[in-house]
Design brief:
The complex is a heterotrimer.
Chain A lengths: L1 H21 L6 E8 L6 H20 L3 E3 L2 E11 L4 H14 L4 E3 L4 H13 L4 E3 L14 E3 L4 H16 L4 E6 L3 H18 L4 E7 L7 H9 L4 E3 L4 H13 L6 E3 L6 H7 L7 E4 L8 H14 L5 H20 L6 H13 L4 E3 L2 E5 L5 E2 L2 E6 L5 E7 L2
Helix pairs in contact in A: 2-11, 3-4, 5-6, 8-9, 11-12
Chain B lengths: L1 H30 L6 H24 L7 H28 L7 H23 L4 E2 L8 E4 L2 E4 H23 L1 H11 L11 H26 L2 E2 L3 H16 L4 H21 L5 H15 L16
Antiparallel strand pairs in B: 1-4, 2-3
Chain C lengths: L1 H22 L4 H25 L11 H6 L4 H34 L4 H21 L2 H26 L7 H20 L15 H27 L6 H19 L9 E2 L7 H20 L1 H11 L1 H6 L4 H27 L1 E2 L6 H14 L4 H17 L7 H15 L12 H5 L8
Antiparallel strand pairs in C: 1-2
Helix pairs in contact in C: 2-4, 2-5, 5-6, 6-10, 6-13, 6-14, 6-15, 7-8, 7-9, 7-13, 8-9, 8-13, 10-11, 11-13, 14-15
C-alpha cells in the first residue's frame, strides 16, 4: 500500500511540473459566452447560432481582437449546449458566468430557455442578449437582459396593418401551434390587432394544433369553410411547408401570410411552388439585399453552403452589439463585476446600431426598436423585399 | 360535407397510426415487449425511402431507363421495406435478444435508448436541416360534391388496408404465422416444441419494421418534410393504439390506429382545436375504463414475466 | 497462453481482495471525514493549486469539462483529482478508521436518530462546502437531488410495484404548477395573481405547505390513472398513464391563468440547497420506511405473484392504489422543488423527454432499490452535465452505456438491495466482511 501511495505522489508531482509548463494565462482575452440549442428539438437553430458566432470570431480575431481603451484584446468564444431545455439552459448560463468568466452571453434563442436563463444572468449581473426570443418576459424588469429582435406586440399589428392596407380584407383565419410559445403569442397579438381594425368577430377562424403534428386538414377544412379571405400562420418553416401544401391541396387559392419564422432558406426548399406569392414579415430580405447584409449572406453561404436564416442574422447582429458595447465601455479593469456592469451600461446606451437586420436602439426594457420588412416569395422562390414598416 | 371531408382526412391520418401500431402490436403479442424503438424505425424507414427514391429518380434522370412515377414509388417501397427490415432485425439482435430472460421493462429501456441513438446518429450523419421528400407522383385532386380527395390519399388508405389484410392472412394461414400465434399463446413452452424462437423473433421484427418503412414512405409522400425526431410522437401515439387494439390482434391494432386518427381529426371539428389532445386522450381513457382489455384482447391473468 | 490468462485473473483477484482488505475496516464516518477534508482542502487551496497546474480554475465537475475541451490539460486535471480528492479521502479515511470505529461503537448505544443526524450533518457540510466553490456546482447539486427524489418515486411504481408507468412527468407538472400557484398567488406581486396576499417573511415557512399541496394535487391526479388501471393486471397502466401525460400537458396549455404554453415564471427562489437537501432526505427516509413496511412487502408480493398475494389476504387493489398515489405524491413534491429551483416552468418541459430521462435513471440505478435510485439519478444527471462539451455525441454515449448496463445487469446496477441505515452506520472491523 505504501508503495502505491508513494508512486501516486511521484506521478502527481511529475504531472504538476508538466502543468506548470503548460500554464499560460492570457490577461488580454475577452471571453464571450454563446448558449445555443445544439442538441434537442431545434438543432437547426443551434447550428445557425454557432456558425454565425464562429464567423464573427474569425473576423474579430483576424483584425487583432477587440480594441478597448487603446488596448487590443483577443476574443474567445465559449459555446455551451443547452439541449433546448429550460433546466439545461439555466445550468449552462450559470456555468458560463461562474466557471468560464464570460463578459457577456449571447443566447439562449427560444423563449422557454431565455426566460429562466435571463433571470440567472440578471441576478449574477452579466449582460445577456437573446437574439431570437420574442416573449416580453425575457427582458421584463431585467436590466442586464437584452434582445436582438422585435417583439410579438409589434409584429402582430405590422402584419394586420399590411394586409388591411394591401388587400383591404375584412375576414382573417389564423392557424397556430398551441403548444409553442412563439406562434401562440404572435397569433394572439395579431388577433387583437386585426379585431381592432375590423371589429370583433373579424377573425372568423382561430385554429390550433400541437407541436410535431403533420396533418392539419381538419383545422384547414374548418378554415376553408369559415369564409376567411386570407390565412395567417406564424409557424416555423417545416410546418409552413406542410400547412401551405395541405391547404392548397384542399383547393384553397387565397393568400397566405406568415411571420419572421418563415425567414429561412428552407421554407422554399421544403414548400416548393405552393409557397410562391405568399407574404411574410421579417427582419431582413435575403434576395436583393445590399451592403453589409449582402456581404454577410455571401460570406455565410460561402462558408457553410446555405443562405443564413433569421437566427443566424440576428445572432450576427447580437454578437456585434456585444462587441460594440465592449468597445464603448472604454476600459476593462479585469474585475469581472465592474466590467460586466460597464458593458451592460454601454449596451443600454447604444443608439442607432447599424445591424444587418435594421437599425436598433434599445428601450428601457432592453428591447430594440427596429423596423420590420414585408417580404414576398417571388415566382423564382426568392425572398423579395416588398415593404418596410417602422414603429 | 365537412363530415365527409374530415372522414377522408381521418382515414389517411389513421393509416399511419395503423401501420405503425401493427409493428408494435406484433412484437407485443409475440415477445410481450414494448418496442419503444419502433417510432424511430419508422423514421429510419422514411429516410431510407428518401435515399432510395432519390437514387431511383437520379437513375431515371440519367436516361438509362425511364420509369413512371408510380413504379418508382412501388420500387421505393419494396426496396426500403427490405432494407428497413434489416434495421429491425439488427435492433432485435443487439437490443432485445441479449435481454430475452431479463425483465420486460429492461428491454423496453434498451429500445428507448436505441431510439435515441438512431435519432442522434441521423442528426450526426445528415446534419440538422430538414429533408424534403421527392414528390414521386403528381397530385391530382378530385372534387366529389364538395369533398376534396387526392390520388395520394386514396393510395395511402388502400395500401395500408391491403397490408394489414395481408398480414392478417399471413398470421392466420401460413406455417410461420402459426408459429407466431403459438408463441403468443405460450412463450415458454412453444420453443420446447421445436419452434425456433430466435428466428420467429427476428421475423417479427423484420415484418414490423417493413411495415414501419411503408408508413414512413407514405408519410413522406403525404407530408414531405422529414426530420430526425419525426418518429417520437407518432410512435408513442401508435403505441397507445397498439395496446388499445388488444394483445395479439392484427385487426384490433388496425382498427385502433384508425380510431385514434378519427378521434384526433373529429375532435377539432366539434370542439375548439386547442383542446384536441385533452379531449382526444380523455376519450381513450374512457374507452379503457369500459373495455380494460382493449378491443379484441382477451383478459388474461397469467403471470407476466416481470 | 491460457496459463498467463489464469495468472492474470488470479493477480487481479489478489489485487481486488487487497483493495477490499484495505477498505473493509473503514466505517462510513471515516469516509465522510475524508471527503470533508478533501472539500476543505479544495476550498482553501483549490483555486491556487489549480492555477499552478495550469488550469484557469478548479475543475468544476471532476475535471471532465477540461479533459474534453482541452485534451492537453488532461494530466493537470487528473493530478488535481488525485491530489485534492482521491488521496486525502483515502488517507484520511484509512488513518481515522480506528478512531471512527470507536466513535461509531459508542454511538450505536445511543438512539439511531442521533447517529443518522450526525452522518447527515457531515454529508450536508461536505456538499455545502463542495458546492460553495461556484454557483454552477450548487445548481448541479440541487437539480441532481431533485432528480433523486423523482427517480425514487418512479422506482416505487416501476420497481417495487412492477408496473410500467409513463405518467411521472404529468405528476411532476401537477405538483410544479400547484405549488407555484400557491406561492405566486400568496407571496408575490404577480401580473396574473395580483399583489401578494401574505407578507414576504412568512413565505419560506409556508413553503413546505406549498410542496405538500403540490404532492397532494399530483396524488389526486394519480387517482384518475389508478382507478381505471388497477381493476385488472396488465399493461394497460402503460397507455393509461401515457394518455394521462398527454392530457395534463394539454390541460395546462389551455389554462391561461398559469400562462398556457408561455409558462409560469418568477417563483420565489425558496428551493435553496438546505431546503432541497432536507426535503430530499426526508423523502428518501419516508419512502424507505414505506417500502420496508408491511405495505411495502405486500406490494412486492403483489408484483411477484398477484394471485398468491391475494390468497394470503393482501388486498391487492388497495395496495396498488396506495402505492401509486404515494409515488405520485413524491413526484409532485419533486415538481414543486423543481419549479422553485428553476423559477420557470412550462408545459413543454414535462413531456416525453423527461419521461425518457426518468426511466433511464431508474433502470440504470436498479429496480426495487433505494441505493439504485440514488446511484442512477446521480450518475445520469452528472454524466449529462459532464459530457456536455461532446454535444451530439453525448446522446450516443449515454444511451450506449445504458444498453450495456441493461445487457450485463438487466435489473440495473444495484437492484433489489435493501437500504438498511443501521447496517450502513455501524462500526466495521477488518474481519467483518
Amino acid at each position: 500500500m505504501k508503495k502505491f501511495v508513494f508512486a501516486a505522489a511521484i506521478i502527481s508531482i511529475f504531472a504538476a511540473c508538466l502543468g506548470v509548463c503548460a500554464y499560460a494565462k492570457g490577461p488580454d482575452v475577452i471571453r464571450i459566452g454563446v448558449n445555443a440549442p445544439l442538441t434537442g428539438d431545434i438543432p437547426k437553430v443551434g447550428e445557425g447560432t454557432k456558425y454565425a458566432a464562429q464567423m464573427w470570431l474569425k473576423e474579430v480575431n483576424a483584425a487583432g481582437g477587440i480594441e478597448v481603451g487603446g488596448r487590443k484584446y483577443k476574443v474567445e468564444l465559449v459555446i455551451e449546449d443547452n439541449e433546448a431545455k429550460a433546466e439545461s439552459a439555466v445550468k449552462a448560463t450559470t456555468k458560463l458566468i461562474t466557471e468560464e468568466d464570460v463578459l457577456a452571453i449571447v443566447g439562449p434563442q427560444a423563449s422557454k430557455q431565455a426566460i429562466p436563463a435571463g433571470g440567472i444572468a440578471n441576478e449574477l449581473g452579466t449582460p445577456m442578449i437573446s437574439p431570437w426570443s420574442t416573449n416580453p418576459d425575457t427582458t421584463k424588469d431585467r436590466p442586464f437582459v437584452f434582445r436582438g429582435c422585435f417583439l410579438d406586440p409589434f409584429q402582430g399589428p405590422v402584419v394586420a396593418n399590411f394586409v388591411k392596407s394591401e388587400f383591404g380584407f375584412t375576414k382573417a383565419a389564423v392557424l397556430y401551434d398551441v403548444a409553442s410559445d412563439y406562434p401562440k403569442g404572435l397569433a394572439e397579438f395579431f388577433k387583437k390587432a386585426w379585431e381592432g381594425l375590423n371589429g370583433a368577430g373579424s377573425v372568423v377562424a382561430y385554429e390550433s394544433f400541437t407541436t410535431k403534428d403533420a396533418d392539419f386538414s381538419s383545422q384547414l377544412t374548418k378554415i376553408i369553410n369559415s369564409g376567411a379571405q386570407f390565412l395567417f400562420t406564424p409557424q416555423y418553416y417545416n410546418e409552413v411547408a406542410l400547412i401551405v401544401q395541405q391547404v392548397r391541396q384542399l383547393g384553397w387559392k387565397k393568400p397566405i401570410v406568415g411571420s419572421d419564422s418563415w425567414g429561412s432558406a428552407e421554407t422554399v426548399k421544403l414548400c416548393g411552388k405552393d409557397c410562391y406569392g405568399s407574404f411574410f414579415s421579417t427582419h431582413y430580405a435575403a434576395a436583393g439585399a445590399k451592403g453589409a447584409t449582402r456581404e454577410f449572406i455571401d460570406r455565410y453561404q460561402k462558408a457553410y453552403g446555405y443562405v443564413p436564416d433569421d437566427v443566424a442574422a440576428l445572432t450576427w447582429d447580437s454578437v456585434r452589439i456585444v462587441k460594440q458595447a465592449v468597445q464603448n465601455c472604454g476600459k476593462l479593469t479585469g474585475d469581472m463585476k465592474t466590467d460586466r456592469k460597464c458593458v451592460r451600461d454601454a449596451m443600454a446606451k447604444i443608439r442607432e446600431f447599424d445591424g444587418i437586420t435594421g437599425k436598433m436602439t434599445f428601450t428601457e426594457e432592453g428591447d430594440p426598436i427596429k423596423c420590420a420588412v414585408i417580404v414576398r416569395i417571388s415566382d423564382k422562390g426568392e425572398f423579395e423585399f416588398y415593404k418596410s414598416v417602422c414603429p | 360535407m365537412v363530415f365527409f371531408q374530415n372522414l377522408i382526412n381521418a382515414l389517411q391520418w389513421g393509416s399511419f397510426y395503423a401501420l405503425i401500431a401493427l409493428g408494435y402490436s406484433m412484437v407485443y403479442s409475440i415477445l410481450m415487449l414494448f418496442n419503444f424503438a419502433h417510432g424511430d424505425i419508422f423514421m429510419v424507414g422514411a429516410y431510407i425511402g428518401f435515399g432510395v427514391a432519390t437514387a431511383l429518380v437520379a437513375l431515371t434522370a440519367m436516361g438509362n431507363f425511364a420509369l413512371p412515377g408510380w413504379l418508382v414509388l412501388a420500387l421505393t417501397i419494396l426496396i426500403s421495406m427490405f432494407l428497413t427490415s434489416f434495421v429491425g432485425m439488427f435492433v432485435e439482435r443487439v437490443g432485445y435478444r441479449p435481454l430475452r430472460d431479463a425483465p420486460r421493462a429492461s428491454a423496453a429501456i434498451t429500445g428507448l435508448m436505441i431510439g435515441i441513438i438512431l435519432e442522434t446518429g441521423n442528426l450526426i450523419l445528415l446534419g440538422a436541416q430538414r429533408i424534403s421528400f421527392p414528390s414521386l407522383i403528381e397530385t391530382s385532386t378530385y372534387q366529389l360534391g364538395g369533398v376534396v380527395v387526392t390520388n395520394k390519399k386514396i393510395m395511402i388508405v388502400l395500401v395500408s388496408i391491403a397490408l394489414s389484410f395481408a398480414l392478417h392472412q399471413f398470421i392466420r394461414r401460413t406455417r410461420w404465422g402459426m408459429a407466431m400465434r403459438a408463441m403468443a399463446f405460450d412463450y415458454a413452452v412453444v420453443p420446447l416444441m421445436g419452434v425456433p424462437l430466435n428466428r420467429i423473433a427476428a421475423l417479427t421484427f423484420a415484418i414490423g419494421s417493413g411495415l414501419a418503412a411503408v408508413a414512413g414512405i407514405l408519410f413522406g409522400v403525404a407530408y414531405p418534410v422529414l426530420d430526425p425526431y419525426m418518429g417520437i410522437l407518432v410512435g408513442w401515439k401508435a403505441f397507445v393504439a397498439a395496446i388499445l387494439g388488444g394483445r395479439g390482434s392484427v385487426v384490433g391494432a388496425t382498427l385502433a390506429g384508425f380510431l385514434l386518427g378519427f378521434i384526433e381529426m373529429f375532435v377539432p371539428m366539434v370542439f375548439p382545436s386547442t383542446f384536441r389532445d385533452l379531449i382526444a386522450y380523455s376519450i381513450i381513457l374512457l374507452i379503457l375504463v369500459f373495455r380494460p382489455h382493449g378491443f379484441f384482447g382477451e383478459p388474461y391473468s397469467a403471470r407476466l414475466r416481470l | 497462453m491460457e496459463s498467463t490468462g489464469d495468472e492474470l485473473s488470479i493477480n487481479g483477484k489478489l489485487k481486488s481482495s487487497r483493495v477490499r482488505e484495505f477498505v473493509a475496516p473503514i466505517p462510513l464516518l471515516s469516509w465522510l471525514l475524508g471527503a470533508l477534508v478533501a472539500v476543505a482542502l479544495e476550498h482553501y487551496i483549490g483555486t491556487s493549486f489549480a492555477q499552478t497546474l495550469g488550469l484557469r480554475k478548479a475543475p468544476m465537475l471532476f475535471g471532465f469539462d477540461i479533459m474534453l475541451k482541452q485534451p492537453t490539460l488532461i494530466h493537470s486535471a487528473l493530478t488535481y483529482l488525485v491530489l485534492i480528492y482521491f488521496l486525502p479521502i483515502i488517507v484520511v479515511a484509512r488513518l481515522s478508521a480506528a478512531g471512527m470505529n470507536g466513535l461509531a461503537a459508542i454511538l450505536i448505544d445511543y438512539p439511531l436518530m442521533l447517529t443518522v443526524l450526525i452522518h447527515l450533518g457531515m454529508l450536508y457540510a461536505i456538499l455545502h462546502w463542495w458546492s460553495n466553490m461556484s454557483l454552477y456546482r450548487a445548481d448541479v447539486l440541487r437539480f441532481t437531488l431533485i432528480a433523486v427524489l423523482l427517480t425514487l418515486s418512479l422506482n416505487l411504481i416501476n420497481g417495487y410495484m412492477g408496473e410500467f408507468s409513463c405518467s411521472h412527468p404529468g405528476f411532476m407538472a401537477l405538483g410544479a404548477y400547484a405549488s407555484s400557484v400557491f406561492t405566486l398567488g400568496l407571496f408575490a406581486d404577480d401580473r396574473v395573481f395580483g399583489p401578494a396576499l401574505l407578507p414576504q417573511w412568512l413565505g419560506p415557512y409556508l413553503f413546505p405547505v406549498a410542496l405538500v399541496l403540490g404532492g397532494v394535487v399530483a396524488a389526486v391526479g394519480a387517482l384518475a390513472v389508478a382507478i381505471p388501471s388497477f381493476r385488472t393486471r396488465g399493461d394497460y397502466l402503460a397507455i393509461i398513464s401515457l394518455a394521462f401525460m398527454f392530457i395534463v400537458k394539454s390541460l395546462i396549455e389551455n389554462l391561461e391563468f398559469v400562462g398556457g404554453p408561455r409558462g409560469l415564471g418568477d417563483q420565489p427562489g425558496w428551493a435553496n440547497r438546505p431546503v432541497v437537501f432536507v426535503t430530499v432526505v426526508l423523502g428518501i427516509w419516508i419512502i424507505n420506511n414505506f417500502v420496508r413496511s408491511t405495505l411495502g412487502k405486500a406490494l412486492n408480493a403483489v408484483r411477484d405473484n398477484e394471485m398468491a398475494a391475494d390468497a394470503m389476504t393482501v388486498d391487492t387493489r388497495q395496495t396498488k392504489i396506495t402505492a401509486f398515489l404515494f409515488g405520485a405524491f413524491w413526484a409532485g413534491v419533486a415538481g414543486g422543488l423543481y419549479a422553485h429551483a428553476l423559477r420557470y416552468i412550462n408545459p413543454g418541459s414535462f413531456g416525453i423527454q423527461m419521461l425518457a430521462e426518468g426511466l433511464a435513471m431508474v433502470y440504470f440505478g436498479g429496480l426495487n432499490s433505494v441505493y439504485g435510485s440514488i446511484v442512477g439519478a446521480c450518475s445520469i444527471s452528472l454524466l449529462g452535465e459532464m459530457l456536455r462539451p461532446l454535444e451530439l455525441f453525448k446522446w450516443i454515449i449515454i444511451p450506449l452505456l445504458l444498453i450495456l448496463v441493461m445487457i450485463f445487469r438487466p435489473t440495473g446496477l444495484i437492484a433489489f438491495r435493501e437500504f438498511d441505515v443501521k447496517k450502513l452506520v455501524r462500526p466495521k472491523q477488518a474481519s467483518d466482511r
